[in-house]
Amino acid sequence: MARAKRAPTRDYHPATVRRPPRAAGCAGPITIPRVRGDVELDAGGRRVRLTNLDKVFFPEIGATKRDLLQYYADVAPVLLPHVRDRAMVMKRYPNGAAGEFFFMKRAPSPRPDWIATCAIEHASGNVIDFPVINDLAALLWVVNLGCIDLNQWYARCDDVDRPDYLHVDLDPVGEVLFDTVREAALVVNETLAALGMPTYVKTTGSRGLHVYVPIVRGPTQKQVWEVSKTIAVDVARRHPRLLTAVYKKSARPAGRVLVDYNQNAWGRTLASVYSVRPRPRATVSTPVTWDEVAGGVSIEDFRLDNVPARVQRLGDLWAPLNAARGRFDLARLAR
């Protein structure tokens, strides 16, 4: 007798992955032509149509959609391992960073048959087919839709309830200097290090910093959220003039840095590492070292025009986040 299908709940969400056949070619470096209008090119054996290449996406610096696509082509070797096999929420800016945006979860139709999807069943019974960005062609396709930054799920599609990392989103409340955000990150890092957690930090590309902890896969997203909340509330209690963990916006004290544990909730996303942000100077969410944080790094140090050269020089500072070794066993802290 066949086993009955387990129904989705708030803590269990079945997911089905559709993987297209492998591409015939091998994706190497590509140069997107500087032309007006549209172009079709080969990306690792897949034909990708790119549109409106001359449209200005960042008016303050004059950067076009073509420049954005070329940036993502350049950083694809270090970016793709961080988004591969994960559902992607699309945040589309069809008229560039200064224009209106909208969120889109379902992979649009029609779409190329080589776009992988992750069909996630929600507790309501609703099934959403998210796109999955596994290769250069898919990356160019989703950016061509106007996705300036990339927002992937924390858990891979083979088990969307068990994430690969815990993270701390440090978000300034009101007019807070970035030096204060850096101080907050160093304090949070001390707390996490005292628990034995390995930590990796990146600029958000907007106003804050993200601190990630690679974990052994096992605890549910809810358990990761609970641990992150405990840590956030504790560190904010010990540093009340610097930090807050108050989630209700109207109740947050101004002039603090929010330790936003709620970003660990199921279904939430953050801008991925190496994402360009829809900011005037096309700043990028960039991995940095803790020495750089202590030394006075700033958000605008890392932009669409200079991050590829940094990657060429330093490689992927966040490669350990995807490694099998060096992960923290969060199960001993989870309830």
Verbal overview:
- The structure is a single chain.
- It is globular and about 55 Å long.
- It has 6 helices and 16 strands.
- Helix 1 (65-83) packs across helix 2 (136-144).
- It has 335 residues and is of the alpha+beta class.
- The chain has 2 domains: 15-152, DNA primase, PRIM domain (Alpha-Beta Complex), CATH 3.90.920.10; 165-332, Alpha-Beta Complex (DNA primase, PRIM domain).
**How large a portion of the residues is in β-strands, by DSSP E?**
15-25%
What structural class do the secondary elements suggest? alpha+beta
- Please write the string of helix (H) and strand (E) elements: EEEEEHEEEEHEEHEEHEEEHH
Shape summary: globular
- The strand order across the widest sheet is 14-15-11-13-12-16
Instruction: Give the CATH architecture of the largest domain.
Output: Alpha-Beta Complex
End-to-end separation in angstroms reads 35 Å
